[in-house]
UniProtKB/TrEMBL annotation:
Family matches, as InterPro entries: Isochorismatase-like_dom (IPR000868), Isochorismatase-like_hydrls (IPR050272), Isochorismatase-like_sf (IPR036380)
Coiled coil: none
Name by which UniProt lists this protein: Cysteine hydrolase
UniProt keyword Nucleotidyltransferase present: no
Originating organism: Verminephrobacter aporrectodeae subsp. tuberculatae
Pfam families cross-referenced by the UniProt entry: Isochorismatase
Domain Isochorismatase-like: 26-215
Transmembrane segments: 12-31
Length: 237
């Protein structure tokens, strides 16, 4: 089958310049595409946000996931969740937000941001496939207090292509953590969203400014083209 052949030495048109990567050393990181952020009744909605903004990226994320899986690339998912006893949720985090519905309180999607509750699940359209790593994280950044770095090291991953929500919180925090650890990161702009459009724009600008000081940005169509061209060039005539 085509996808069993490793695709190597790929590159895509990105900002501020070309992003080179090797498929076998690159993971697609899908951040916090959970009901708690995307559906009414969850954490995001409890903070007064319009969650429909986040749902708008789901079709692009689905297309990207399908193409990446078809190419044989590693997909890693994250979820922002806390233990049922909230022992991994610092009071400094819990006591901010909406005093009427805090992390751990029971809302329409179960206990807010608690592992195993309906709200903590990744939405069905972007659900992990069996065998794909899922990182439960108590922080905004996916490296804080998780085994993500060790898992990526074990798999020889040096590059992260990032999608998910929200752009300026968990996505940007994770990219900054990854950048400091030496990963080359690219953010897929049409596969990430914020409750605040101006925050998404600002995040995209600050990531790729100053010669990719945090990383690269591109639309998923660029990555889809790269994967399609690479696949076509390997098809026997
Ligand atoms: C937030 C996240 N926004 N996943 N979490 O609190 O971005």
């Amino acid at each position: 089958m085509l996808h069993e052949r490793p695709l190597s030495g790929l590159s895509l048109l990105a900002q501020p310049f070309i992003y080179p990567f090797v498929l076998a050393h690159t993971a697609l990181l899908s951040i916090d595409m959970q009901r708690d952020f995307i559906e009414p009744g969850g954490f995001g909605a409890s903070l007064g946000n319009d969650v429909s903004r986040l749902r708008s990226i789901v079709p692009a994320c689905q297309t990207m996931l399908a193409a990446w899986r078809r190419a044989g690339g590693l997909v890693v998912h994250t979820r922002e969740t806390h233990r049922a006893d909230l022992s991994d949720c610092p009071p400094a985090k819990r006591l901010r937000g909406n005093p009427a519905l805090r992390i751990g309180d029971v809302g329409p999607l179960g206990r807010i941001l608690v592992a195993g509750e309906p709200g903590s699940q990744i939405i069905a359209e972007l659900a992990p496939w069996p065998g794909e790593p899922v990182i439960d994280k108590p922080g905004k950044g996916a490296f804080h207090a998780t085994g993500l770095q060790q898992m990526l090291e074990q798999r020889g991953i040096s590059h992260l292509i990032v999608m998910g929500v929200t752009t300026e919180v968990c996505v940007q925090s994770t990219m900054r953590e990854a950048n400091d650890r030496g990963y080359d990161c690219l953010l897929l702009l049409d596969c990430t969203e914020s409750y605040f459009p101006q925050f998404k724009t600002a995040t995209a600008e600050m990531i790729q400014a100053q010669g990719a000081i945090v990383g690269w940005t591109a639309n998923s169509t660029q990555l889809l083209s790269t994967l399609a061209e690479s696949s076509a060039s390997k098809t026997p005539i």
